[in-house]
Write a structure and sequence with these properties.
By secondary structure, the chain is of the alpha/beta class. The protein has helices spanning 24-35, 72-82, 116-125, 145-149, 155-177, and strands spanning 5-9, 41-43, 48-55, 58-65, 90-96, 104-107, 131-136. The chain is built from 5 helices and 7 strands. A 7-stranded mixed beta sheet has the order 2-3-4-1-5-7-6, with helices on both faces.
Amino acid sequence: MEKKKLIVGLGNPGREYEKTRHNMGYEVVKAFAEKQRLSFKRKFALLGRVAMGVVSDKQIVLLLPTTYMNRSGSAVKRCLTRYRIGNEELLVIVDDVDLPFGKLRMREKGSSGGHNGLKSIEETLGTQNYARLRVGISDHAEGELADYVLARFTSDESVQLPLVIEEAVDVVQRFVES
């Protein structure tokens, strides 16, 4: 069996954050797990919910950190260490307020772009060298950014959301197969 891969969906824990724009990473990873028939178990020592399995002959670990977004780095580092996974086998899925709703952007490495979850991971790992999939959550026009990202999707966005998540799941699948 080849190297393990860690796929992380960033979001905030708790019912009040379910189905909010900022939890797009959670939604994509949960959809990927469902497609692969993998179920999550709470792992307190890893600061998250973890699912494991074999996909396309590759061992994968899925992580939904139960820390808040700006502390995600601790959960990611613990998981990488516990399962002996290198940064080159890490994919982090995040929302991106600077991309139009539904647009996907995959990068092998790069800056946080101001995203607090990615900042936390970079600070904790001491590197920007890990893959990230950014999922556009629309152009933030006016008002407080925090209010926007922590709000639920509009009815129009909710109609399109399943297709966006499906496209993102396909990108995750390609990462696993790479």
